[in-house]
Amino acid sequence: MEAKILPDSPEDISTFHIQATESIQERWPRTLKQGDSFAMFDALGDCVSPGLTPGGLFHNDTRYLSGVQLLIDGQRPLLLSSTVENDNVVLTVDLSNPDIYQHGAIVLPRETLHVRRSKFLWQGACHERIAIYNFDTKAQACWLTINFAADFADLFEVRGMQRARRGEITSAVIGGSKTIFRYMGLDKIERRSEIAFDPPPRQLSKSQALYSLQLEPGAHFALTMTVLCTDSASPRPPAAQVFSEPYRAARRGAERAATLGGSVTSSNELANRMLSRAGADLSMLVTETPQGPYPYAGTPWFSTPFGRDGLITALEMLWLDPSLACGVLRYLAAHQATKMDDRNDAEPGKILHETRSCEMAILGEVPFRHYYGSIDSTPLFVWLAAAYFDRTGDAQTIRDLWPNIEAALTWIEEYGDQDGDGFVEYYRMSENGLTNQGWKDSCDSIMHADGQLAPGSIALCEVQAYVYAAQKGAARMAAMLGHGDRAAALAAAAEKLRIRFEQAFWIEELGTYALALDGDKRPCKVRSSNAGQVLASGIAAPERAQAVAATLMMPEMFSGWGVRTLSADAPRFNPMSYHNGSVWPHDNAIIALGLARYGLKRAASAIFEGLFDAANHMDMMRLPELFCGFPRRRGTAPVSYPVACAPQAWACVVPFALLKANLGLQICFNQREIRFHNPQLPRFMEEVHINGLEMGEASVNLRLRRRGADTEVAVVSRKGDVSIRITQ
After folding, report:
1. Residue 335 to residues 330, 331, 544, 691: CA-CA distances in angstroms?
2. Which of 284, 301, 408, 507 is 20 to 30 A from 275 (CA-CA)?
3. Threshold 0.90, pTM exceeds
4. Averaged over 248-260, what is the pLDDT?
């Protein structure tokens, strides 16, 4: 089979580049997400002049509300406080009036009126309650104005892509209490924003609601504003309800957050805040699909299912929440490619990279409606399936998925290795697809030691490790299913790959593995975090794993906050780049899991401690998608990356993955054992409680306590057949 490899071109630099005109978190620090909707507001709860930034309310990757602004007598209120509550359900903003002047005199002194805004998302709608209290000893009158707008911008337009044509927007006021914006897209789908007010305002236009308030001393006034997002291609959601009904439903829907965030607690209150935030963020990003729960990758740019992101998130969270892995596996199996389609980089058996439901995706202006340009999703799918079986013993799910697993293995053998050299390489079939198709998918992320970009096809080092783990795991699953010959063949293939990998990728003078092999089979001799990810699969020889760990802890690689994606002595190093010198928390978590696999706990602890210290400087102790790779200096904070997603699924599970790595924790269902290999709590944790750790019908509550250089494990309570084993 001959691969069609498209040449790189200068256009690749900007095709899917996310335009950065300002820092997302600086301008839009408040994020809400539920189901297929997300919203980003400024600290006052407004969205003013968003332009090419992700402010507003989005549904299915389309912006249904591009502007909202609350004014008191024509002026913006004063900010008192603004926070998203711990479970990520409600944004609460407290405001007061500014000094209001008429004819040079103050007619309404500042901080006389208190305004509380409460916003949340539920089933495709943004609900808001605005309550105004008069704390004066005399009556006060004012005008309350709410400005609003809907541009129906496609998320890829917001990211900076230009369109030659767009659909048409119309609007109408209905019954004095509702304004409806309609957008008839080029895809023939009508999208509607229905903005309703209760009670009706005194005046309502196509862009403004106006209330005339007369407040007696101690009196208050409240209104609700609901923005319902609908389209003609989807079933209409339930009729709008009074504020309290969807509010209670949204609260119930967030109960998963309390389960995850409360499962692990420590003696360090800051660590507890980090863990609680991580659990709440994961809960917010998890969306129920027909196949089960799926963690959407992250807001604002990736609030949709991504194959790689979902698989890694589920893998890192598997020890604590295996149901997430089951949902991810079943969803990706249902969307596995079954035929060749060059437009979407699809081949039979390949696992999804990304899916989108916005207008540009439906029209094919971007290839992401169902896009398969990911070299690692397919082996990660098989690896996760095996890890899920080891963790849960759920043989029925593996039986159900076995045809999909076999299809993925066939893709690895036939399509993934186009030139038959034993390694899985990527190449781009679609002219609109991604140039680089590993997790570092920037157009400049794969290079040689002289800085020259590596020509395709590219065999990434970590992808070979994923394939190794997939084949080893598939051999165990095949044996369980009674396919003895297939199990033996897969085990032999994994061993053959291990030997070839060591021969082709090890770079003795660097003390680490090559980033990749280019299309001419020349190794990319640069130190990168990819080599650290290799360790998580177990493909590396033990002595070489120790050498890799040493390079990762060099000051050129370890910034003090975490491991950089690229060594500071590499020609393309840039601490402000997306993939060439930044620090990615999820990358560090995979590295730490690999280090722990080889017993290298000191390095794993250094990563945990660095990222914990970084989180202490982050808003809400939320680890972002990435941050800049500048070296850590006393008295300074890590440098933010301007367009990083926060929350991001594979970043929010990092604290749980790092704890697993440091504890050397492994759950073995067949042996009915929870194993701890040389458990080591990081320095900022004296004691940790793990509650409700399940193994089938059994469960345990555990307490781990640091005693000098050792960590002791105690069973607080136990239900069912499960034992604890500690090894050194």
Report:
1. 9, 7, 38, 35
2. 301
3. yes
4. 70
